[in-house]
Amino acid sequence: AVVSTQSTGDLTSGDQEFWNGLMDKVKLGEAEAPTDTVEVAPKPVFCVKTKNKEGEKVFMNICTCEQIPEPKKLSVEELVKLLESEDAMQASQYRIPMSIGDKPHAEVDKKGVGCSVYDIAINTNYISTLKEEPAFMNFFLQVVYEGLSAKFQIELDWDWLILKNRSHVGRIRPHTIRTFRKPVIQEVTQPAKKRTTKHTQPAPKPKYIVLQQPVTGSPNYLIVDVWLPGIESSSKLTLDVGEDRLTLHAHPAMYFLDIELPYDVIPLESGAQYDTGKQQLTVALMTAET
């Protein structure tokens, strides 16, 4: 996603509040940024039947929701290679964004026996991948099992079955998901000393640093700081953010940066701020968390 630039005169107060809040929290080392929430109605697609360690029936309603990001597209070979990798960091970079219902709902099966039902929502387009490739289905259910175990402290039997003639059990409850206000790039104008910079190379690589928030465990955000001496305005910058890559051009051929990100991010939920005084670009990227 190519991120365009605007000057401070074009920014709304909401945009400025977003950046002020986000940058304050980054400095404080907090994990969250200003967010909004929206209630969505997941659509059931298929239902998985299993049991817990007590032998009680458990059903998982697998649903779709357009507001949830789609996972990075991989081939079966690429997925197998990641899973077999000895590099734990590399293997953990493939994530499936999903929403797990706030709590299970009690239902009864066809025989009138009580059971627990969990609702899980994923991106609408990802369903076709699961149906076409058993390897992705197995990996997806492993992620679901881990998510349910972490959220509800339950242990499920890996002996599962997809119901043939039933898309869901019980009534699907609405989900409340986080939505991040998409910011524009904000240019912060500060008094700066005039400087003259000469480059002997056509497009040198600028100094940069990649930080994560929180600093331990899986991050919610990546923060990329880039120092660009000689760049007096954000109008000279072209920033392109992909799922696993960030590229930056400073025109005319003053700087070029192309880096592979340590975690997958959601390009549409990214934003940047250029400080003309410090001549520093700060890019905030939301990671594609499971």
Would you give an account of this structure?
The structure is a single chain. The protein is of the alpha+beta class. Helices cover 19% and strands 35% of the residues. It has helices spanning 13-28, 76-84, 88-91, 126-132, 134-152; strands at residues 2-3, 5-6, 36-40, 43-51, 57-64, 99-100, 105-108, 114-122, 161-162, 175-179, 185-188, 207-213, 221-227, 237-241, 245-250, 255-260, 265-275, 280-287. It has a six-stranded mixed β-sheet, with helices on one face. A hairpin with a 7-residue loop joins strand 12 and strand 13 (221-227).
> What form results from the Cα inertia axes?
elongated
Low-confidence stretches: 2-14, 25-35, 180-186, 191-201
Distance from N terminus to C terminus (CA atoms, Å) equals 21 Å
Q: Taking all residues together, what is the mean pLDDT? A: 79
Gyration radius (Cα, Å) is 23 Å
Give the helix proportion (percent range).
10-25%
Report the total helices.
5
Number of strands: 18
* Main β sheet profile: 6 strands, mixed
Adjacency order of strands in the biggest sheet? 2-11-17-18-13-12
Range of strand content: 35-45%
What order do the SSEs take from the amino end to the carboxyl end, as H and E?
A: EEHEEEHHEEEHHEEEEEEEEEE
Overall structural class, as computed from helix and strand content, comes to alpha+beta
Topology:
Layout: E1 2-3, E2 5-6, H1 13-28, E3 36-40, E4 43-51, E5 57-64, H2 76-84, H3 88-91, E6 99-100, E7 105-108, E8 114-122, H4 126-132, H5 134-152, E9 161-162, E10 175-179, E11 185-188, E12 207-213, E13 221-227, E14 237-241, E15 245-250, E16 255-260, E17 265-275, E18 280-287
Parallel strand pairs: 2-11, 5-8, 11-17
Antiparallel strand pairs: 1-14, 3-10, 4-5, 4-9, 6-8, 7-8, 12-13, 13-18, 14-15, 15-16, 17-18
Helix pairs in contact: 4-5
